[in-house]
Amino acid sequence: MVDSGEKARRYTADDLGLVCDRLASRFGSRFSIGQALRDQHASVLTWLPPQAPDGVVFPESEAEVAEIVRLCADHNVPVIAYGTGTGLEGHVNAPEGGISVDTSRMNAIVAVHAEDLDVVVQPGVTRKQLNDYLRDQGLFFPIDPGADASIGGMAATRASGTNAVRYGTMKDNVLSLRAVLANGEIIATASRAKKSSAGYDLTRLLVGSEGTLGIITEVTLRLHGIPEAISAGICPFATEKEACDAVIATIQSGLAVARIELLDALMVKAANAYSGLDLPEVPMLFLEFHGSEAGVAEQAERFGEIATDHGGGPFSWATKPEERTKLWTARHNAYWSGAALRPGGRSVASDVCVPLSRLAECVAETRRDIDETGLIAPIVGHVGDGNFHVQPIIDVDDPREVRACEAFLERMVTRALAMGGTCTGEHGVGQGKRKYLKAEHGEAALAAMRAIKQALDPKGIMNPGKIFSD
Amino acid sequence: MVDSGEKARRYTADDLGLVCDRLASRFGSRFSIGQALRDQHASVLTWLPPQAPDGVVFPESEAEVAEIVRLCADHNVPVIAYGTGTGLEGHVNAPEGGISVDTSRMNAIVAVHAEDLDVVVQPGVTRKQLNDYLRDQGLFFPIDPGADASIGGMAATRASGTNAVRYGTMKDNVLSLRAVLANGEIIATASRAKKSSAGYDLTRLLVGSEGTLGIITEVTLRLHGIPEAISAGICPFATEKEACDAVIATIQSGLAVARIELLDALMVKAANAYSGLDLPEVPMLFLEFHGSEAGVAEQAERFGEIATDHGGGPFSWATKPEERTKLWTARHNAYWSGAALRPGGRSVASDVCVPLSRLAECVAETRRDIDETGLIAPIVGHVGDGNFHVQPIIDVDDPREVRACEAFLERMVTRALAMGGTCTGEHGVGQGKRKYLKAEHGEAALAAMRAIKQALDPKGIMNPGKIFSD
Fold first, then answer.
1. A448: nearest CB among B181, B428, B454
2. pLDDT band, very low/low/confident/very high, at A6 (cuts 50, 70, 90)
3. Mean pLDDT (chain A, rounded)
4. Phi/psi of residue A43, nearest 5 degrees
5. Measured between alpha carbons, how far is B246 from B286 in angstroms, rounded to an integer?
6. Which residues of A448-457 are buried (b: 16+ CB within 10 A; e: fewer)?
7. Nearest chain B CA: its distance from A305 CA (Å)
8. Taking the alpha carbons of B329, B330, B331, B332 in that order, is the dihedral positive or negative?
9. Residues of chain A found within 8 Å of residue B427, distances taken between Cβ atoms
10. Around Cβ B304, how many Cβ atoms within 10 Å?
């Protein structure tokens, strides 16, 4: 299906044996070479072939991570950082073998600085765990990829989600990081100051580096006050184009919408079935506004006018918190409700992102392409950012269907790039999108990325086979 | 006064002669080795000793920049990118000689994408030029360092200014860049998509790299709609501490204040004298709110309450646009009004940034230190970000005063670092703050930065003697 990236290992069986012996004696039951555990640490959520690591270790501190990396580096054995394994592009696969460094036991919330609106966490803390912890203090962390991912994984893949249109992505919400580099050295990328112009931006270099430059051992995140008022609503449109045009007008008007999500008719149908909703099965915007009572009312009114101007509506409110939760739970369950459209089928979730002005066209062409290809594939998107997801549900045992799906995904990326967009808005490169990086960035920029990789990881032991094609 | 960084040149007189001959024959009157022009291209706004380049060239296109860099690279001659020369830490000095690449003729606004809220500009476009151009379209670019700096220079130094508390800094507002690297290759760092997780963040790596990794040849910036309503006001406080505490409460409350600036009593006195105001000479917050008519009124009311709670007030409005302009012009003239406190004195502008919770303490201790040292030094700050400026006005011919000032600045940085802050919030490192990077980042992170520099500029020709101490 996809180039597996399997290649000659850079270490001998003796090297590996020695590393495993040392890890076993040092970490006891926190290290395992059991097949079941190794299989769980391969990429299991994706359509990419799983490639299990040779062993899995569960460090409990930064010092232990550094120890593991130094040991592996001494023997050229790859290290693959593992958060929750919910990445969609094969980030945790081990095409060259090596040791999976599972950070799930490093899940302490180290310090909340309410006055500074920041929090220091270990990488294994998940986003839901963090928000549960923060709620009593009136604070929240807005980044919400579909899964209950770990903060370390979210930083490593530059994750975002439904709130990004207002609060930005991980690149905007990570204040600083600590990480273990390939040489076993521990770095802190920045202070807790809200801004700095003191040297190269190592924070942003590590955010999105997918474990290829270092293993993230601590993250300082920006927090936000829970808004005084939150209101949510939905608005139907006759076509995706009209919905997208309403989105553009909304963003341009300066309305500080907190969430603005498009579900196409098929996605609405899937959500109705999976989440027990009874929405009209037409393209639909889900919205949320954050602010003061008066502020959210004003924003809602203005959005209602914009929707009407673009042939949409009626815009209806979910005034009760439980109604709002039901809507957004349905939205967050998009992946599972999509998958349920074809029981037994395999979801192939992919995303692209284009400039907002090209969004309507890109979504419409993609919808037409899906239909002409004969795929079952709902579309759902963070359309305020020009980012949308397509989720073909395929029979992986039908090679013709698999080929058709692959060809479709390639056309989708080509289309997004031709419109001045990117091959992935938030899923990352992993293994699945390596082949598009040259087309997106060009030879010279890709060579600069490789030079950085080579400079910081000359032995190539940090999550090999990701981001870069060989 | 400061380590000048002057060192053995890495090229011979013959190399330089050859480069100059080629540039002269290729660029005609757009290349000069005239002393006056070279002197203008040394750091003239700072207290750092000016170090003129060997020649100045005025390219008119990216291709010409690439040609210049390749020629210089072939002969190991340094290239120093030059925007408007308004940097405050000696960024444009040429301690090892070389060619100043003045981008002022690359000042075209390439494309405005109103629907996407972005604009593509050449690096020599200045922020005022850009905003004049955008005004008719209802759009603006918020980043406003004091000077009318070039966008290329602002990107290279990770500039910010008074609006950063709401709109972020250059790191948040540069969507993508084009740059010529040390090998003469041209890279584009990203597409125009609002977000991407496709590979390393070269955009943020170049933002703040101060010309040491490449010369920026084009910048795509995020824009914002001019708010429907803007309101401004001022609020006196008895002490800096009370003012800072009011700032913390404002930020924590989630009030999306657009600007919140502290002027200490001496700065207010300077502004009164220089800008013809008659404000009470006590610590003062200047504020601005952006939003709808109802929104800014609500924000103002809420801020008024917070100020009262912290012993400040009365909060008074500048309701007329001309009043508002007068206030903010006075704020933007802080550098010049500060300088006018001591005619004939030299301004030594420096900045630090600390977590908000430490701001009051840091400002108060700094004020006490200034007074005990016997310096004349107003304080003004972007306090919503924890960032403040101190501007000692000194007699540079009095070695005792110079030493006292240096020692004071060193204590200020040490104090900020001890509070979890940074040695510079927005001025950059240049030559002046190189000596603090190890204390701020630690050996390992600084080594990672050096490794990146070495990987992308192995000959060390890109703006040598900046960021890194030798």
1. B181
2. low
3. 94
4. -75, 105
5. 12
6. bbebbbebbb
7. 15
8. positive
9. 197
10. 18
Task: Spell out the domains of chain B, with CATH numbers in brackets.
Answer: 13-104 (3.30.43.10), 107-225 (3.30.465.10), 229-432 (3.40.462.10)
Disruptive mutation site among B200, B207, B305 for chain A (greatest number of A CBs within 10 Å): B200
Using CA atoms, how far apart are residues B168 and B44, in angstroms rounded to an integer? 28
Alpha-carbon gap, residue B54 to B42, rounded angstroms: 10
Task: Tell me the one-letter amino acid at A420.
Answer: G
The tokens for B160 are 């910010």
Per-residue pLDDT tens digits for A294-337: 889 989 999 999 999 999 989 988 777 888 888 888 888 888 89
Provide, as residue numbers in chain B, all residues whose Cβ is less than 8 Å from the Cβ of A202.
445, 448-449
Which of B169, B197, B417 comes nearest A424 by C-beta?
Answer: B197
Q: Report CA-CA distances (Å) from B30 to B70, B102, B104.
A: 18, 10, 11
**Cβ of B187 and A445 within 8 Å?**
yes
Size of interface A-B (CB pairs under 8 A): 284
Q: Do B195 and A385 touch (CB under 8 A)?
A: yes
Give me the sign of the Cα torsion angle A201, A204, A207, A210. negative
DSSP symbols for B313-351: ---EEE-SHHHHHHHHHHHHTHHHHHHTTSTT-EE--EE
Amino acid at B461: I
pLDDT at B20 over 70: yes
Measure CB to CB from residue A193 to each of B208, B251, B355 and give the nearest one. Answer: B355
Chain segment A268-279, per-residue pLDDT in tens? 999 999 999 999
CB-CB contact of B444 with A187 (8 Å) = yes
Angle at A226 between CA A221 and CA A228, to 5 degrees: 155
Q: Mean pLDDT score of chain B, rounded to an integer?
A: 94
| B50: DSSP letter | P
Pick A452's closest partner by Cβ from B200, B204, B417: B200
**What's the pLDDT at B146?**
85
For helices B437-456 and B399-418, give the axis angle rounded to 10 degrees: 90
Query: Is B2's pLDDT higher than 50?
Result: no
Beta bridge partners of B100: B56, B80
Yes or no: say if B423 and B413 are a contact pair by the CB < 8 Å rule: yes
- Chain B residues within an 8 Å CB radius of A160: 195, 197
d(CA B110, CA A355): 17
